[in-house]
């Protein structure tokens, strides 16, 4: 078992035991398979993000890990102890895990101090007081110890919930959409604070989120779920730059798909040629195109036309219709202005990395996660763990 030590360092790994092992986990509700054969592990100090569209089973997985839902099949092993399996089911309060929900779930009649200390039953008064003080300092809320939840902001309540979950020193922390109720600016601030606390305490965590950008920003690895199954498991870089299929490519970021053909050592597309990434020659594929991969030059004889313009502050997103009728998007600095109807010559950006290729599909592509992920013909599984592996 290997675990990355710091998200920014190049592939530094140490041998460590698993904090959590999930094996072939399954759960049915009537005829619906909410979770179907999920398996993964969680290294000590690792943050794993579960991400997927609504109804994919991510919250059900988290609740099974917590013991709030009993799996029909499979095993859950926490710190080497089987807590769910054919002959085991350990109650939630005996699992040694911490849980943080979107709703905070603080006791409104208790102070911040009492909320944080609630899970320390059986601990002596002096030790309990010291631990609560330590946790409040960790989340920078020492001055709020005597306040009640209604006297706190949403971000402050979430930090109290985090301190309460960490106070008993859980073996794993489970977080279910913990920032969903916060506005965007506060969400980023609190998210960064929470991740910092997890790093400082070395607490392994499983985050459930529907926000792809959030998963890419905070996860050591990401597990993408689709219809209760693992679509792909890997580092953020691998998931984004090397998606296994259309579903993962579109769900994890803005994506367009261009027909392409591998010819010898190059991949030929309507936007030009790119070096082939060791793909088998003479076959039809689709190239995954991100808006940052495409640029254009205004030209009265250009074969593409600007069909849409979306101002996004520091950048502008252009929708370009190519001569074939295919549509790709291009993101450029807000200072570079082109109007709808302008004829242009579209091409790959100079920094465009070797192409991401997926098997050619006859199904129509759905562009961009905001429009909903497309249905892929098949679901591949990747389990890359090296966070900084080349992609």
Describe this structure in a few short sentences.
With 391 residues, the protein is of the alpha+beta class.
Total domains: 2
The description of the largest β-sheet is: 6 strands, mixed
pLDDT averaged over residues: 84
Bulk shape: globular
Helix content: 10-25%
Side by side, the strands of the main sheet go 9-10-11-5-12-13
Unreliable spans are 1-14, 362-391
What is the name of the CATH architecture of the largest domain? 3-Layer(aba) Sandwich
Strand portion: 25-35%
- Helix-strand category: alpha+beta
Number of helices: 8
Count of extended strands: 23
From the 3D structure, determine the CATH topology of the largest domain.
Rossmann fold
For the CA atoms, what is the radius of gyration? Answer: 24 Å
**In whole angstroms, how far apart are the ends?**
22 Å
CATH C-level of the largest domain: Alpha Beta
Q: Superfamily at the CATH H level of the largest domain?
A: P-loop containing nucleotide triphosphate hydrolases
Polypeptide structure, described:
This protein is α+β, with helices and mostly antiparallel strands. The protein has eight helices and 23 strands. Helix 5 links the parallel strand 10 and strand 11. The radius of gyration is 24 Å and the shape is globular. The two termini are 22 Å apart. The N terminus and C terminus are likely disordered.
Summarize this structure as a short list of keywords or feature phrases.
391 residues, alpha+beta, Rossmann fold, OB fold (Dihydrolipoamide Acetyltransferase, E2P), 2 domains, 6-stranded mixed β-sheet, 5-stranded antiparallel β-sheet, 8 helices, 23 strands, 20% helix, 35% strand, disordered C terminus
